[in-house]
């Protein structure tokens, strides 16, 4: 593993407020980039947006090349939170599995941003997602965060 490389994975509900606050999101990433650079860490960003469809906007992109705009969030419809979260975790895990071990990030941080009430998942349950998160946390030391307006709905 490359101890000087981290990957940030974002899984965003198209209804989440970030689509109207892309300037703030970009400022936050720039501040993180500056602090990481000061301590010698490179950061890659993976950004997935979900609505009635699932869209990968950035995949393992150096943080310096990430630019937000309203056009990055074209989706609409119901939000299959659990199915989208599982797909993002699986996709990143598969990509890292195909990556030479010395080039893998030492830290993977996954953040789910969701409006929270509109879960239209059909393939997976909260229990399935909990097991996937537990495995990635215990085996691969990934970190997970949930940002939502309705945390009462989430476990």
Q: What this model shows, in words?
A:
- This protein has 155 residues and is an alpha/beta fold.
- It has helices at residues 22-38, 81-97, 126-140; strands spanning 2-13, 42-50, 54-62, 105-114, 143-148.
- Helix 3 links the parallel strand 4 (105-114) and strand 5 (143-148).
- The chain is globular and about 40 Å long.
- The model has no long low-confidence stretch (mean pLDDT 84).
What does the average pLDDT come to?
84
User: What's the end-to-end separation, in Å?
Assistant: 31 Å
Main beta sheet, described? 5 strands, mixed
- Helical residues, percent: 25-40%
Low-confidence stretches: none
Provide tags for this entry.
globular; 155 residues; 5-stranded mixed beta sheet; 32% helix; alpha/beta
List the SSEs and their pairings.
Layout: E1 2-13, H1 22-38, E2 42-50, E3 54-62, H2 81-97, E4 105-114, H3 126-140, E5 143-148
Parallel strand pairs: 1-2, 1-4, 4-5
Antiparallel strand pairs: 2-3
Helix pairs in contact: 2-3
What's the short story on this structure?
With 155 residues, this protein is α/β, with parallel strands linked by helices.
């Amino acid at each position: 593993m490359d101890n000087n490389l981290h990957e940030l994975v974002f899984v965003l509900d198209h209804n989440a407020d970030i689509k109207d606050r892309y300037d703030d999101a970009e400022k936050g990433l720039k501040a993180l980039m500056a602090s990481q650079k000061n301590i010698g860490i490179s950061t890659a960003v993976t950004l997935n947006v979900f609505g009635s469809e699932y869209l990968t906007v950035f995949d393992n992109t150096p943080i310096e090349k990430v630019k937000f705009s309203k056009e990055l969030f074209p989706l609409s419809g119901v939000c299959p939170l659990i199915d989208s979260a599982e797909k993002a975790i699986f996709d990143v895990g598969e990509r890292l599995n195909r990556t030479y071990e010395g080039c893998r990030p030492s830290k993977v941080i996954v953040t789910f941003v969701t409006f929270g009430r509109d879960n239209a998942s059909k393939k997976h349950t909260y229990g399935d997602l909990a097991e996937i998160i537990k495995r990635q946390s215990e085996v691969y030391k990934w970190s997970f965060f949930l940002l939502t307006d309705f945390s009462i709905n989430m476990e």
